[in-house]
Amino acid sequence: MTPSISCAFDGGNIDLVRIDGDRIDLNIRKDGGSDFYQWFYFRVAGARGRTLVFRILNAGGAAYAFGWPGYRTRVSRDRETWAMADTDYADGVLSFSHSFDSDLAWFAYFAPYTTERHNGLIARMALAPGVAHRELGRSLDGQPIDCLTLGTGPKQVWIYARQHPGEAMTEWYMEGALEKLTDTSDPAARTLREAATLHLVPNMNPDGSARGHLRTNAAGVNLNREWHAPTRERSPEVLAVLSAMDETGVAFAIDVHGDEAIPANFVAGFEGIPSWTDALGAQFYGYADALAARTPLFQTDKGYPKAGPGRANLSMSTNQLAERFGAVAMTLEMPFKDHDPSPDPVHGWSPDRSKQLAHAMLDTLADRIGGI
Q1: What are the positions of the active site (predicted)?
Q2: Does the annotation count 226 as an active-site position?
């Protein structure tokens, strides 16, 4: 029996090139209207009892091909638990194998966070006591940009995720953050709700998420290069969120992302903005240091290079919010690989640990909110 390969579902992305015995050759589709690609997600049926080798032939041309070495594909039999498959990268080809003891298996760049799960999260959280739901706007495909707000304090906190839709760990993070913030027995959540008003946007790019894109929206636009001048034609998602931020102001912000290459969790700041002050920078560095001291799921040694004075890219949200509002703003990056300082040899970086990191970051914010 010839195995069946399918990606005709929410977030799916793969093209079948050929099947040659137990070897299956594939290509990843580009984001629509863009040259970006790296996210893949597909289903295999009809392979029980066989060991198949999969080869992604165009991996060498992916947006962040330098991130493939050390990466391991995620595989699941039930789309709930995702483990790492044996994976190699050589000569521009990503190869992985799987021994099938079930009728179906799913393979993905990272454990997917589906549109249906997003809708379920929004419905559940909108019913939680003290939570208000607002639709900030619509995407190019007409999908809602959902925002959940809770808390009564004067400090305005914004946490938003999935500008880059293939970074699915970011919405697992948001699920964890919302679960903690709506836990009425959690002391840190109570502190934050009393000191701040918190606005959470779990998915800023629902179109790209549904289409199986890595980095762009329905127009092929990278949303995290639109914050200096968003438009209804190119980036209504950013326009909707930034307009809401202009209404409230921003004291503290986390833009949640995933990084293809660095095997660790880290934050990037806003060095290089025109209005940089050492006092504002100290708030950012102090938060990062306190978070690293709190949890082994975060570190400060690995990360991105810092921009020089006056050289910050203001089209990126963290820099724009720090400059526009004087906010303590940061970009959180989680790995597609694993958090090497505290690894999991079976699952790698995972949905559950993404949620754990969200909890630790909110605990740290609760300790420091009074000084922000």
Answers
A1: 333
A2: no
